[in-house]
Amino acid sequence: MNPDVLVAVFLTVITASTPLLLAALGELVTERAGVLNLGVEGMMLMGAVVGFAVTLTTGQWGLGVLAAALAGAGLALVFGVLTLTLVANQVATGLALTIFGIGVSSLIGAGFVGKPLPPLPRLAVPGLSDLPVVGRLLFGQDLLVYLSLVMTGVVAFVLNRTRIGLVLRAVGQSDVSAHAIGYPVIRIRYGAVLFGGVMSGLAGAYLSLAYTPLWVQEMTAGRGWIALAIVVFAAWRPGRALVGAYLFGGITILQLYAQGAGWLPVPSQIFSMLPYLATILVLVIISAGPWRRRLDAPACLGKPFRPAA
Amino acid sequence: MAFRIEPRRAPPASLFYLTPVLAVAVTVVLGALLFAALGYAPGATLYHFFVSPLTTVNGLAELVLKATPLAMIGVGLAAGFRANVWNIGAEGQLTLGAIAGGMTALELIDVDAPWVLPLMALAGVAGGMAWAAIPAFLKVRFDVSEILTSLMLTYVAGLLLALLVHGPLKDPTGYGFPQSAMFAPSANLPMLVNGTRLNAGALVGLAVVLGAWLVLARTIVGFQIRVVGEAPAAARYAGFSAPRIVWLTLLAGGGLAGLAGVFEVAGPIGQLVPSISPGYGFTAIIVAFLGRLHPVGILLAALLMALSYIGGENAQVAVNLPRAATGVFQGLLLFVLLASDFLVRYRIRLARPARAAP
Amino acid sequence: MDLGESAPAPRLSLRGIVKRFPGVVANDAVSLDVRQGEIHGLIGENGAGKSTLVKIIDGVLQPDEGEILWQGRPVTIPDPRAARRLGIGMVFQHFSLFEAMSVVENVALGLDDPPPRNRLAAEIRDVAADYGLPLDPARDVHTLSVGERQRIEIVRALLQKPRLLIMDEPTSVLTPQEVERLFATLRRLAGEGCSILYISHKLQEITALCERATILRGGKVVAACDPRRETAGSMAQMMIGAELRTVARRSGAVVGAPRLVVEGLDLPASDPHGVALKGIGFEVRAGEIVGIAGVAGNGQGELEQALAGERPAARPEAIRIDGRPAGRLGPDERRAAGLCCVPEERNGHGAVPGFTLVENGILSAHHRRGLVGGGLIRLRKARAFAAEIVSAFDVRTPGVDAAASSLSGGNLQKFVVGREILQGPGVLVVSQPTWGVDAGAAAAIHAALIRLAGEGAAILVISQDLDELLMLSDRLAVINGGVLSPPRPTDAMSVEEIGLLMGGVHGVDPAPAEAAHGV
C-alpha cells in the first residue's frame, strides 16, 4: 500500500473516531461525578440536527457548532432536573432522553432531510499543512477534531491535577461524605451532566457537519451507546478513552473498506455488524479480564442522592 | 424557601397508581403547546391524534392490534425491571422471533396443517429467548451490563434480518424486492373481526397479561423477582438466586418479544420484510413504566401507546403533522411520568408546618 | 442570661434549638454551653438526638428554631464550610472518607484552601508526629485500618487549628488501648485551649474524660452535670429515664450436645475492602449462648454471611448443623436444616423496607412455616404468621400491611428477631441484635434470646457492644483480621484481655494451653 492510501485511511479513521471521543469524554466526566446518563444517543441526535439546521439556515458553521452544544446541554439539563432535583431513576430517565431525542430530532429535521452542506472547513496551518504525509494528518483537520484531542488532555489534567477535579471525583465516590464535608453535591453533578451534554451535542454536530455532512434520521446509529461502552472500556480514564474511541473508529473504517473492497465473499451486513459485536466483545474482555479493578468505577454511579433538609 | 420537601416513609399506593393518569393529562397539555408552537392548530391536532381513531370500528381494531405486541413485550420487560434487569433490546428479540417464526413458515410453505401456526409461535419464542440469552449469559458469567449488550444486539438483529431478506430468504418471484415470499394461509393468524386486521394474537396477548399478573402477584417466583430488585442483599439472605432471576426475566422478556415478532409477520405483515416493527420494543419500555410494572396497568398503557401510533398516522394524513410527533409524545410522557414520581416519594408542604406530634 | 465580666463568653452556646423530621422532633428546645478549653460530654441513647444536634452545629442541617452563639455572637452556619471558617472541626462517627483516594487527597478535600500536594503531605506528617498519630499521606484509604482512618479525620480537623473540635462517637470502632491514646490527644488539645464536644453513649468514657456533660433524652436536655461527681449508674438513670434494669448475668445454663460446629472455615475476601476469614473454628452447644466480640470490619459481616449460607464454604464439613455437613448448602437449605439468622443490617438485608410486614414474614420463613404451596403464596397463612410475630414480640405497627420502612428501628428489629425465633430454629446466629434499638426493645430482644437458649437452641451472638456480650454469653471469642480467638468462658476473661484480643495482640494469655479447652 502506498503512503497516500494509508494517509487517506487514517484520515477517515480520525473522522470516525472523533464523534466517539467527544461523546465518551463528556460521559466520562458525568460518570466520574457519579451520574449515569444513558441519553448520550439522544443528546447526540439533538446536537446533530440543531447543528445542521443552524448552519444551513445561517450559513455560519461556528453558530451551528455552538447551537449543537447548547442543544446537547438543553437535553442534559432536562436529565439533570429529573434525576438530580427530582431524584428520578437515572436508567429510566436516560432511556427517556434517547427516545425523546430520536423523536424531537426527527421532528426538527423533517425539513432538512437530503439537503447538502459543505463540510466543516479544515483549519490549515500555513506551511505545516503542506508537509508530506504528516501535513494532512496533523495540521489539516477541522476544529472539532482538534477540540476532541485537546479536550482529552484538558479533562485528564482537570480530573487529576486540579481542585475542581478532586472535588468532582469525591462527589462520584461518596456523595454522602462530600455533602458532609460541605460540597454542593447536586450543583457539581449538574455541572458534570451539562458538560456531558455539551460534548454529546458537539459529537452530534461533528456527524452532521463533518462526517457525512448531511442530516439523516437516527444518523447516530448507536454511536451514543458505543461511547458509553468506551467509558467502561477506558476504566473512566481520558487517555484510555482516546485509545478506545480510535479502536472503534478503526473498526468502523475497516469494515467499510472491507465492504467496499470485497475482501471476503460475505454479505455487507456481516461487516456492518462488526462495530456492535466488537463493543460486546470489548465489554466482556474488560469485565472478565484479570486486570479488572472494581475500584475504577465511581462508587456512587447511578445512585440517587438527596440531601436531608 | 416558600415550602419544604420531606421524604414519605411509606408512599401511598393510591398516589402510585394515580400519578400516571396525571402524567398523561400533563403530557397532552404539553403536546398541545408543542403542536401550537410548531404552527398546528392544537385543538384539531389533538382531536386527530387522540379521538378520531376511536370513532371507527377499524380504528378500534387497529388500536387493539398495535396494543397487543406492546402489552406482551411490556409485561415481559416489567418482570425484568422489577428485578433491576434492564433489558432494553426487546426490539432485537422481537426481530429474532420474527425471523425464527418466519423461517419456520417459509420452510412449511407447502404444508396446510393446524400445527404450523403453533410451531411458528414456538420457534418465535425460542428465537427471542436465544437472543436474550446472550445478555443473560454475559451478565451472569462476566457481569457485563445487559443494557449495552441487549441494545447492541438489536442493531445486529436488524442487520441479520436485512441480510436474510436481501439474500437467502428473498422471494425469487418478488421482482427483486428485499422481502420473502408471502406465507401460506395456514401460517397466518385467524382474523377476529371481518374487514379489519385484528387477529387472534390479541387473545393470546390478553392471556399473557393475565398469566403474568398471576405469576407476579401470587407466586413465590414473582415474590423473588421483587426481592431481587428491591433489596439484593435481602434476596441473598433469603436464599433467592439473583443469577437465576436474571436468566428467568431475560428469557421471559425475550420469549414474549419473540412471540410478538411472530404475531407481526403471521398477522398484519404476512411475510418477512426488512422492517417489522415501528419500534414496539422501545415503546414497550415506556409502556412498562407507565403501567407501573403492573400487568393491568401495562394493558392500559399499551392501549394508550397504540393510540399514539395510530393518532400519529392519522394526524399526518389529516393535518400533515410529521410522523416523528409520535416519538416526541412518547418521550415527553415518560419524562413527565418520571417527574411525577417525585410526588409519590416526597411530600411538599408549606414552610411553617403544624407542630409535629412528639 | 448573665455573662459576668470576669467569665469570658462560652465558645459555643446553643439556645432553644428545635429540629423536626417527619413524624419526630429530633431536637426539642436544646440549650447548652461549651466553654473555652473544656471537654464537654453530650450523652444520650441511640435516637436521643445527638447526631442531629451535631449536624446543626456543623452546618449540615439547619435548625427550625433557636439560636447559635459563637464566642457570644449570634451566628448562622449555612454549611460545613462556614463551620470550618468559624473554627469548628468535626470528626464523624461514620467517616466521611473517600476509599479510592489517598490520605493527602482526603485531607485536601476537607480543607478550604489546601496548600500544594507536597507541602500538605509534609504538614500532615508534622501534625501526625506532633500528636503521636502515625499516618502515611501517600497511602490509599481503602488499605488502612479503621483506627488509621479515624486518624485522617482527626489530622484533617487539627490542620485547621480548630477552636472547637466535635467528636461524634469516636471510640465505637477502637480497641480499649486505642481509646486511651485518643483520650491523651484530646486532653492535650484541651490544655492548649481548644474546646471539645465529645458525643458518646458510653458513660465510662464520659466520666474519664469530661468536665461537664449535657444529657439528652427524646430530643430534650434532661440534665446537665459534672461527670466527675456522678457515677456511671446515676448518669445512666438520667439517660434512660428509668431505674436501670440490672439484667442478671446468665449463669448456670444447661448445656447439651453441640448443634453448630465450625471447623477450619476459610473464606476469601469478596471485594478489595473486605476481610478474609482464616481457619475459623468453634462450636455452640444446645442451650448455650456464645458471643463474638471485635472491632467493626474485622470479618464479622463475612462470618455472618458464611454461617447464613450467603457465601458457601469450600468444604461441606467446615460447617455442621446438628452433625450434618452444611458448608455447601445455601441459606434456604440451612434454614431447612435448622439454622436461622438475623443479619446486622435490618434495612435491605434482614428486611425489605418497601415490603409489608406480611411480605417480610414470607422472606425468610416461607419454607419453615409452609407459607408457599405449589409455587403459590398462601396469603392467609402468611398474614397469620406476621400477626403472630407482631403480638408475640410486641411490635408497634398500625397493622401487618404496614411497610417495614414505616416502623421504628427498634420495632423492625423486634419483628426480624421474632420472625426467626418463631421458626423454632435449632441454631440461631444473631448479628448486632440491639444496634440502634431503644432500651425497652433491647431488653425484650435479650430476654427472647435467653428464653430460646433455655428451650435448647444454640445461639451465636456477634456484637460490637461488649456490655451486651458480657451480659448474654456463656462463652466469648474475639474476631480480629478474620481470625477468631478460641472461645473461653466469659467469667474467665477480663475486659483488658478482650481489648488486647480486639486489637490483635495475642499471646498475652497467661496460660495459652487453657485456650484449647474452648474448642
UniProtKB/TrEMBL annotation, chain A:
InterPro entries, per database record: ABC_transp_permease
UniProt topology in membrane: Multi-pass membrane protein
GO terms assigned for molecular function: transmembrane transporter activity
Alphabetized UniProt keyword annotations: Cell membrane, Membrane, Transmembrane, Transmembrane helix
Intracellular or extracellular location(s): Cell membrane
GO CC annotations on file: plasma membrane
Predominant location category: membrane
Coiled coil: none
Name assigned to this protein: ABC transporter permease
From TrEMBL, chain B:
InterPro entries: ABC_transp_permease (IPR001851)
Membrane spanning stretches: 21-43, 63-81, 93-109, 115-138, 150-169, 198-216, 245-263, 324-344
Pfam families for this protein: BPD_transp_2
GO CC terms, sorted: plasma membrane
Protein name: ABC transporter permease
Membrane topology value: Multi-pass membrane protein
Keywords for this protein: Cell membrane, Membrane, Transmembrane, Transmembrane helix
GO molecular function, one term: transmembrane transporter activity
Native species: Salinarimonas soli
Compartment annotation: Cell membrane
From TrEMBL, chain C:
Domain ABC transporter positions: 12-243, 262-506
Membrane topology: Peripheral membrane protein
Nucleotide-binding keyword on record: yes
Pfam family, one: ABC_tran
PROSITE patterns: ABC_TRANSPORTER_1, ABC_TRANSPORTER_2
Domain of life: Bacteria
Keywords assigned by UniProt, alphabetized: ATP-binding, Cell membrane, Membrane, Nucleotide-binding, Repeat, Sugar transport, Translocase, Transport
Compartment(s): Cell membrane
Cited InterPro entries: AAA+_ATPase (IPR003593), ABC_carbohydrate_import_ATPase (IPR050107), ABC_transporter-like_ATP-bd (IPR003439), ABC_transporter-like_CS (IPR017871), P-loop_NTPase (IPR027417)
Protein family per UniProt: Belongs to the ABC transporter superfamily.
UniProt cross-references to PANTHER family, sorted A to Z: CARBOHYDRATE TRANSPORT ATP-BINDING PROTEIN MG119-RELATED, GUANOSINE IMPORT ATP-BINDING PROTEIN NUPO
UniProt name for this protein: ABC transporter ATP-binding protein
